[in-house]
Amino acid sequence: MKLLISIVQDADVNFLMDALTESGYRVTKLSTTGGFLKKGNTTLLIGVEEEKLDEVLSIIEANCKKRNTTTTIINPSAESSLLTNTVPVDISVGGATIFILDVDQYIRL
Ligand code: 2BA
């Protein structure tokens, strides 16, 4: 068995969870925050048999979109004035960031 730790954008979560549960997969949703943008995102824990891994990855890919956003970062070469100290950068977020771990044991009591 594998455990997928899947970080997705909040806007994709409901569609993704519906698609996964309708296909018979069990999912746990955690509210999380990205370290770079400091904005909310969602982490899904999905335990899945190895032979179903590709199907789950396809469902995630089909439901998680790439989106562009802008943030500001500190410009280290700028003078200390607040206006010139930050620069805007364009960022592409998503579709999904997925960690796939081997599950040692899966117990439901
Ligand atoms: P955030 O950390 O808020 O990152 C949002 C987006 O900002 C990232 O999208 C990426 O495009 C950009 N970004 C992140 N760190 C950056 C950096 N040091 N320099 C320049 N750009 C940077 P995604 O790659 O799609 O990641 C979406 C979210 O997935 C992340 O939100 C974070 O919560 C999670 N994530 C991604 N990679 C991770 C990792 N290696 N470990 C833990 N969480 C990760």
From TrEMBL:
Matches recorded under SUPFAM superfamilies: GlnB-like
InterPro entries: CdAMP_rec, N-reg_PII-like_a/b, N-reg_PII/ATP_PRibTrfase_C
PANTHER family assigned to the protein according to its UniProt record, in alphabetical order: CYCLIC DI-AMP RECEPTOR A
Name under which the protein is recorded: Transcriptional regulator
